[in-house]
């Protein structure tokens, strides 16, 4: 009787092995579900990024507002007859402060021959 019980217990363990640790086992399925969830989250973030870039491209193609905004903030350009005012916070350095000025241009050599 003991031999039959032992044999059945071993057989039960052998049957359980693929269920837990095999190719389609529960642990593998849980790991794959976690990877799928991570991929879905990444796809969602990339979709929102693509939508933002798409709207920016459409704005750059159709409107002049985005081009003007980029010119102002990235290239520090201003419109003709426009006055530029910059407000500094307390303790903020003035633009150009602490920068050594460029040396003056070299003088032209004087011509040694008389006129």
From TrEMBL:
It is a single-pass type II membrane protein. GO terms for cellular component: cell division site; cell septum; plasma membrane. GO terms for biological process: FtsZ-dependent cytokinesis. Residues 1-3 are cytoplasmic. Residues 22-115 are periplasmic. Residues 39-61, 93-115 are annotated as: Disordered. Its main location: membrane. It is found in: Cell inner membrane. Keywords: Cell cycle, Cell division, Cell inner membrane, Cell membrane, Membrane, Transmembrane, Transmembrane helix. Belongs to the FtsB family. HAMAP family: FtsB. Essential cell division protein. May link together the upstream cell division proteins, which are predominantly cytoplasmic, with the downstream cell division proteins, which are predominantly periplasmic. Part of a complex composed of FtsB, FtsL and FtsQ. This is Cell division protein FtsB. It comes from Pseudoduganella plicata.
């Amino acid at each position: 009787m003991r031999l039959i019980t032992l044999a059945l217990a071993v057989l039960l363990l052998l049957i359980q092995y693929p269920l837990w640790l095999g190719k389609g086992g529960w642990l593998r399925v849980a790991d794959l579900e976690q990877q799928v969830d991570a991929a879905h989250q990444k796809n969602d973030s990339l979709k929102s990024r693509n939508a933002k870039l798409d709207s920016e491209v459409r704005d750059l193609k159709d409107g002049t507002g985005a081009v003007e905004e980029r010119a102002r903030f990235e290239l520090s350009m201003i419109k003709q007859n426009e006055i530029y005012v910059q407000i500094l916070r307390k303790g903020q350095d003035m633009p150009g402060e602490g920068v050594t000025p460029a040396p003056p241009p070299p003088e032209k050599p004087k011509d040694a021959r008389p006129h």
